[in-house]
Prior knowledge:
Layout: H1 9-30, E1 35-36, H2 38-45, H3 49-57, E2 69-70, H4 71-80
Helix pairs in contact: 2-3
Amino acid sequence: MGEIILTTKSELADTLEQVLRKYDKEKADKQPTKTYTVNQIAKALGKAHSTIKRLIRAGVIKTTRDGLIPEWALNEYLNKNI
């Protein structure tokens, strides 16, 4: 037989929010990630190629093993530097 659990509305809302965030993250992780070259990012941001390379070497902008910049890494950089 099932259990009866008593909770408050705010606890239930918090739990649902956590579950939905986890679901959204898992769904996003399964989506193919768009990637960009250093030149594409430099042009889009109005920066020099060497500036983007310096940010990559410093670990400010993450890249894939083949040197491409994933969309999530670009968003992470932009969100930190707004």
